[in-house]
Amino acid sequence: MRNEQDPTRTATTCARGDAVTVTHPAFATIRASRVQGHHRLFGSTIEHQGAVVIELTEACMVESGGRQTVSDGRRTIAKVALSEAQWASFVSRLNMGTGVPCTLERVRDGELQSVAGLPAPESSAERLDSAAQAMLDESQRKQDAAFDAMRSILDDAKIPAKVKQALAAQMDMARDHGQVNRDYHRKVLDETNEQLVADARIEIDAMVSDIVQHLGVSSLQEAAALAHGRRPALAAG
pTM score, two decimals? Predict the structure, then answer.
């Protein structure tokens, strides 16, 4: 159980006259707001032109004329940013799984400190490419180690020189064939990755067209106008 502490009450003056400001270390406010601007967010593979920002701020209670009013804006404790998807997950997944990723922007450590920003995110395609290259490199390393071991055994073997040369030639052919296979699989992987991106774009375009059709409008501009309560502009002619 935490230690308890009585609030501190201080007589002040406000616009309504005399008032009492009540403070306590546990008093705080939390607010969420949508902001525009460039954001790189933890747990997201794309760069965002907007985000949901959650700010935790120290607060107090002002008592005046028999009314109590919460006042924030004293000092920011922490500020985090989330993508729209992260925000939706945050508010809908109570007591489920691990925490939702968020990006710490400011935190108070004595003084309010800005947190270093994130570098450009690596795309899913880039991550797949890096993972594939790592697997190919590991395969190459193991093959080279195996061939070096076999070469050492062959050099020490008490067999005719012509037989050694023939075996060594077969080993070199096998090594070259393995490199050709790796190059081929890498090419196939690159082509598959490009096709997946192209297919995804087609699916997204089809989904957007279907949404526009169901809304009974002819363009995304008209859909956006309807969403904001404006009448779409009439086509010329």
Answer: 0.54
